[in-house]
Specification:
single chain, 14% strand
Length: 85
């Protein structure tokens, strides 16, 4: 038994809030407009499962809104600028 006053410290996953009407693809694209990310970076940053992120990134690559590049042996997604106002 612990007889002293203690503080419980635990990891709590953060999820990024979405704007009303914003889709998962919009959130992914918005993040990639700020900086290139790996699949795991996107999933962690947006609080999404990797499979969900992969669904959005595949579609965004097909439409040309993002591209996939290998840098230092790691795959990074980045926005292409296509479709921006």
């Amino acid at each position: 038994m612990i007889e002293a006053v203690v503080e419980v410290v635990a990891d709590h996953p953060l999820t990024a809030a979405s704007a009303p009407g914003e889709t998962g693809a919009d959130r992914v694209l918005d993040l990639l407009r700020r900086r290139p990310c790996t699949l795991d970076d996107i999933a962690s940053g947006l609080g999404m499962h990797r499979n969900e992120v992969l669904k959005y990134t595949d579609r965004l690559v097909r439409t040309g809104e993002i591209m996939l590049q290998e840098v230092g042996g790691r795959a990074f997604y980045s926005a292409t600028g296509k479709g921006e106002a």
